[in-house]
Design brief:
heterodimer, A: mainly alpha, about 80% helix, about 0% strand, globular, B: mainly alpha, Four Helix Bundle (Hemerythrin (Met), subunit A), about 75% helix, flat
Amino acid sequence: MAEISEVEGVTHREGGIAAYLRRVWVVAEKDVRAEMRSKEVVGTMAAFSVLAAVVFGLAFDLRVPRSELVVPGILWVIVLFAGVLGLNRSFGSEVDRGTLAGLLLAPVERSAIYLGKAAANLLYFLIVEALLVPALLILFDVNLLKPIVLLGLLLGTIGYVGVGTLFAALTSRNRARETLLPVLLLPVLVPLFISGVGLTSVILDGRATAEAWPWLVIIGLFDALVFAIAFLLVDVIWEKG
Amino acid sequence: MSTLSRPTSPDRWFAPLLVFDVIAGLAMVGVMWAGLVYAGDAVNLAGEEQAAQRIFYFHIGSNIAALLGFLGSVVGSIGYLVSRRLVWDRWAAASVEIGTIFGILVLLSGAIWAKPAWNTYWTWDPRLTTATITVLIYIAYMLFRNGFDDAETRARFAAVYAMFAFLSVPLTYYSARLFRSIHPIVFDGGNEEAQGGFAIGPTMGQTLAIAMIGFALLFLALLFHRVRQFDFEARIDAIRERFDE
């Protein structure tokens, strides 16, 4: 008996930050491995992104004098919508396969599960964005490969994934989960969206870099608040398993 | 039998609520009279704008009610997360529902006023943006609540969502303000917030106070009724569960 509890003690909530991060990593790795085998999420997100870019191109071609005017909006709208597709699967696939209970029984903190899932989602998002940005370059002849735009995209994606993963967990128990997630997510993400578009516009217009800093501050603040609240509330979500 | 009456028997509030309804109704009559008759004309406006200016009292009044709904949802959600008593969740849900109605009234009355004053129904002014997004968040909140069968799961998840909404709304305001202030394409080239403004005379100030009080009372009356309805609902559920066993 003593031996078992000792073993449990080793794996359960022991060690410092390094051990915690290792547990986060295990959850993230599990998600990424499942994704590599099933190829459910990234492929769909990437295909949707490129498709949406083409559709936007058809919508705005001939109507917009300079594509720099619309590309910041297009970039962030596509990220927003493609993200919803991926986030739905984050817990949706666990629920479909009945593996969520197993995941919750794993001897790791709930916040580690949340962070691991968020890390896996972040990876998917970044892969998709790495395809989307060149696609926009080709279709609209607008170069988004600028350090501050990419920094804003990275920080914005982190905040998005932070809210999105938590909301995906919330909706996974709801009757209308797939349809509901975007309705919940989009209004809450508005500050991120406005800041992302604002930041991208500042850089694409060639205005002073100093004008971009307030946007980065808002995005950073959003990220910090999101993860703070998520850490406070993540245990509430799976209280009863 | 004691389990049946656990969600505090709501019918004992019937009589006090009736009195409160009458008070709120009379207050709203007062608001109508003050806003349409008592309040003086704005000295610097004429024609259509002069008539449209009176919607201001209903606009601000609804705004107070919507704000109370917002505060109620936050207080109710925090109260539930701390105490885990479902009664807090019912207050939060009722606040959101009533607050949404008044929020929509704020948007509509604002749009009706803005057409003569600004010559457009709509502009992406930070206040308009924030108000709209808040109403959309509330609608999402109500849709979200709909999809749960278990009252406690619903309360927990709705409270979590309300917390995120509470965090996001001020940031929406600041980002929208920043967006407008550095964004070069502003219709009319001027600051719309200053357009259509008017000097407030003494009767107008009093009317404004009456409108705010009247709408606050109306909000509270509707809120109490909705909470009472929720209490009955919870009671019926409890009774039904007992019969199912």
